[in-house]
Amino acid sequence: MEKEKLLAHETLFADIIRAFKENKTALFGLIVVVILVVLAIFAPYVTPYDPYEIDLNNRFSKPSLNHWFGTDMFGRDLFTRVIYGARISLAIGLIPSLIAVSIGAILGVVSGYIGGRLGYWVMRMADVVMAFPSLLLAIVVMYTLGATLFNLFIALSVVGWAGAARVVRSQALSIREKEFIEAAKAIGVKDIKIMARHVFPNCLPSLMVLFTMNIPDAILSEASLSFLGVGAQPPTPSWGLLVSNGKEFLFSAPWVAILPGLAIFITVLAFNFIGDGLRDAIDPYLKG
Amino acid sequence: MWKYILNRLLISIPILLCVTFLVFVLLNVVPGDPVALMMKEKVSADVVARVRAQMHLDDPWIIRYFRFLWGLLHGDLGTSYKLQRSVTDLILQAFPRTMVLAFSAALVSWIVGIPAGILSAIRQYSVTDYFFMGFSLAGVSMPVFWSALLFQYVFALKLGWLPVAGFYGWRYVIMPAIVLGWSSAGLIARLTRSSLLDVMRNDYIRTARSKGARELAVITGHALKNALLPVVTIMAIQVASLLSGAVITESVFGIPGVGRVAVDAIKSRDMPLLQGSVLFATILVILGNLVADILYSLLDPRIRLEK
After folding, report:
1. Domain segments of chain B: what residues?
2. What b/e readout covers B31-63, taking b as 16+ CB neighbours within 10 angstroms?
């Protein structure tokens, strides 16, 4: 009887995956993201055009069968540029979020489990970072380091870690008090091993939510920074930059600004669907 | 109560100091030479030397930091490198416009967000709920600069109902306020919904229902009071972040507010102006958080008793 019950329960992650699968909007978001990833990876096979190839005879072509999203002020195929831009946006969404959440996880687990002075100072550092309006902090970092893609990774990681650290710390604080931690301590397991083997895995569900929730923020921040001119630089086909370039021609050729913006909107929406679905799937465990 | 407020005020001081330190280090110390950062094109060594002397950049950075802090305490944020005017004056001149934009955007987000959240919670999992939550998620997911361009295209260029950009009267505020308000209306609506749903599960709501109160009376008389507590406190933080985060909206709609000052400062690589506007915005956010904390403790005695 007891064994059957255990088998039926399976693992926490299997439960989470099942709950996620039942959420239609989350699944829809996942499908959109998978399509986007495939398009980005196989961009050279998806479109016959080069994202940087200038064709001045073909400026501002309207969307057509040959040019699905039309062409821009240099006659470059906009669909191609949006597809190649997806590489940047996805990288920007994933890499800084991974860095930020990893830093936040390490600092959060350490400050929550060990606590004391170290924990206090880590949290005060997080307070300072969180006091900044995130876009302005990213602007300052980009101004200082220079507008390159690599620096964008740094700027967005600097902005994102604090929120993750705060959430993970509060989790680590409550896990620290559990019996299995006491048991591990009693049999002489070292603190570092307890943190890695016991505290960290128990924070994983909320880390997953934090990671997915961070992705749309990072994509929007990159787009905003590039739009303002402190992010990716021309001729990089960053989505924010594409919208920014197109805004000058909003009246005569609205597609140049509107279609890349639509790509940002759909991508961010899809990630938000996934984030919401994951949070709803994991929430019972977070509460319990 | 006063002890709690005083405590919160005291906590803000070190954070403020750290923020000034971080901004100063980022903009003055890290790259080594702010003058090189300011000059886009190469200039002769004596020009650089003259500017460095003018800005006292040859002093040790710790002395420069304390000089900057001393100036800050006196409301002096330095002189704009490009405009040759006091940074404080430039920011104070721009601030009222940002305030008009931020408060009208906040108003839009409350008027739209709170009823949307309430309706969604009352009719959970209905078409209404999905509609409003979809609308909220769209607001949160749309890049502000893109929705701004869409609004400009439809309402200014195509329909001609509203002016495209500028800041010469109330008609110029409508579009930016809706664009900026929509993105935060999403947050308010989602928060109102989850908070109301949470409250509706409480025993006192069941009691109110079982004594025969009508659903509307239960919601307005009992549930809303408690459900709106977190919403009210978020509002204070929201106004502060709107004041500081109107950077993009101001830039697209050509509103000469604090955000625009910051963007112009980046474009002209005017470090003192950028430093001033970033600090000003950050201080606003810290004050907003402070007001939110105090407001929460005033509205909910449990918070201040816990401390």
Report:
1. 87-299
2. beebbebbeeeeeeeeebeebeeebebeeeeee
Q: pLDDT (tens digit, 9 = 90+) per residue, B188-231? A: 998 899 889 888 888 888 898 898 888 888 888 888 888 888 88
- Cβ distance of B145 and A223 shorter than 8 Å: yes
- Cβ pair A229:B19 closer than 8 A: no
ω into A235 cis (within 30 of 0): yes
Closest CA to B273 of B80, B129, B47: B80
CATH number of the domain residue A205 falls in: 1.10.3720.10
Is the residue at A55 inside a domain? Answer: no
Q: Is residue A191 part of a domain?
A: yes
Q: Which residues contact B33 (CB under 8 A, 6 or more apart)?
A: B57
Low-confidence ranges of chain B (pLDDT < 70): 29-34, 36-42, 244-245, 303-307
Contact residues, chain B, for A216 at CB < 8 Å: 141
Residue type present at position B235: M
**Encoded tokens for A131:** 């006091």
In a domain, A57, yes or no: no
Asked whether the beta carbons of A263 and B141 are under 8 A apart, the reply is no
Token pair 């959440």 is at which residue?
Answer: A101
Report the C-alpha gap between B86 and B282 in whole angstroms. 19
For residue A266, give the chain B residue with the closest CA: B141
- CATH code of B87-299, in short, is 1.10.3720.10
- Which one, of B302, B299, B297, B239, lies nearest residue B3 by Cα? B297
Backbone angles phi, psi at B101, to 5 degrees: -65, -45
**Number of domains within chain A:** 1
Report the chain B residue with the minimal C-alpha distance to residue A127: B15
Token digits of residue A186 = 């009693």
